[in-house]
Amino acid sequence: MEDKPLNLTEYGATAQPVVNGLALARVVATSHDHYLIMTETGQLAATLSGRLMNLATTATDWPTVGDWVQVRLPDNPADGAVIERLAARQTVFTRKVAGRRSSEQLVAANIDTLLLCMALDANFNLRRLERYLAVAAASGAKAVIVLTKADQTTTLPEQLTAVASVAGTTPVVVCDATQPAGLSELTALMRPRLTYAFLGSSGVGKSTLINRLAGSDALATQAVRAADAHGRHTTTARQLLRLPNGSLVIDTPGMRELGVIDADVDASFADIQALAQHCKFRDCTHHTEPGCAVQAAVASGELTAARLASYQSLKAEQAVNLALRGKARENAKIARMFGSKKQMKTMMQAARHRRR
Ligand SMILES: Nc1nc2c(ncn2[C@@H]2O[C@H](COP(=O)(O)OP(=O)(O)OP(=O)(O)O)[C@@H](O)[C@H]2O)c(=O)[nH]1
Ligand SMILES: [Zn+2]
Fold first, then answer.
1. Of 51, 155, 193, 227, which sits 20 to 30 A from 149 (CA to CA)?
2. Which intervals hold domain CP-type G (predicted)?
């Protein structure tokens, strides 16, 4: 926790006065429908206003970590604030939730830069990196590829060449958390007041990096507890931290399950897009079509078959996810208009009855 008064501009805000008891705040942690927000005077618990709750129909309508919100400040800080409005998001980060009616979940909002983490040990996998780059391309955020555990490899030059072959224009930094100056390439890129999120499989060293960046403040290990709707206490590790250098970091566990629902597969495979310009058919899928320039590039060795297979499976996954989301949107719309699908059917039956 901070002990000195905060300046919200350090959280990326432009100065905003408190008008009619309404102030600007940034969501730093969430637990069910309870929020921890950062205001000009420090951290405060908050809940959603009834109006906002009524308006919220899909998962993305609820505030998430990193959101800017307008809050009504309480007379007594112990009472907590009420979130009245959600500001438009610069970027949103969602992930696919398996087996849920609504197929996506909000992970974080207003991230400026994604730090795509991959370890240089056995975790090293170009295909996974391609997936991360596709998700990053669609998010609207910038991306940096962070290669971790440099002490665990003897083939760094070859790995850097391989990463360069899929990175496009995305910057690449190498980290070694075992060395005192091992994070210098990363810290050289990080700016005050910008919001960063670490993305990567479990065990690649994200927490280690965050703890090192947070230094003695050790904010990264702070657990956030808030009472949920049933009075239970839950701990969530997803939170927004301010580092001593002034950068903001969203610590998001579970990002490894990231689906490509919002991936921009084409944007992150610019090489394949460029080749596809020369395919005979404009809607070529680069499988077995005649005159396929992409297949020709594979045959000539210009493009690896593994990269093309990666592209095609991400495209297929994206198509399935988009279809699922369409269905979820449709259901949400029905729920908003009729309460539920069942009620809609009842009302439609009644209407048909009246017409007879
Ligand atoms: N050799 C070596 N080990 C590292 C390095 N960075 C992290 N580790 C170790 O890797 C293990 C996993 O690191 P974490 O920071 O917990 O990984 P994480 O990505 O946060 O994992 P999750 O919390 O499960 O997502 C720990 O034992 C770290 O000490 C490094 O640069 N070199
Ligand atoms: Zn083709």
1. 193
2. 103-258
Superfamily of domain 92-256: P-loop containing nucleotide triphosphate hydrolases (3.40.50.300)
Residue nearest to atom 15 of ligand 1 (CA): 205
Q: How far apart are CA 136 and CA 108, in angstroms?
A: 13
Atom 22 of ligand 1 has which residue's CA nearest to it? 202
User: Taking a C-beta distance cutoff of 8 angstroms, is the pair 152, 120 a contact?
Assistant: yes
**Is the ipTM above a cut-off of 0.90?**
yes
Ligand 1 atom closest to 204 (CA): 19
Of the ligands numbered here, which is closest to the C-alpha atom of 303?
2
Q: Which ligand is nearest to the CA of 277?
A: 2
Q: Which CATH superfamily is domain 8-86 in?
A: Nucleic acid-binding proteins (2.40.50.140)
Domain with CATH 3.40.50.300 in the chain: 92-256
Residue 355 has pLDDT above 80, yes or no: no
Over the stretch 167-217, which tens digit does the pLDDT of each residue have? 999 999 999 999 999 999 999 999 988 999 888 887 888 888 988 998 854
More confident of the two residues 155 and 354: 155
As a whole number, mean pLDDT of residues 230-240 equals 51
pLDDT of residue 129: 93
Instruction: Find the largest Cα–Cα distance for the chain.
Output: 81
Task: Look up the CATH architecture of domain 265-338.
Answer: Orthogonal Bundle (1.10)
| Alpha carbon 241 to its chain's center | 16
Closest CA to 221 of 202, 201, 241, 248: 241
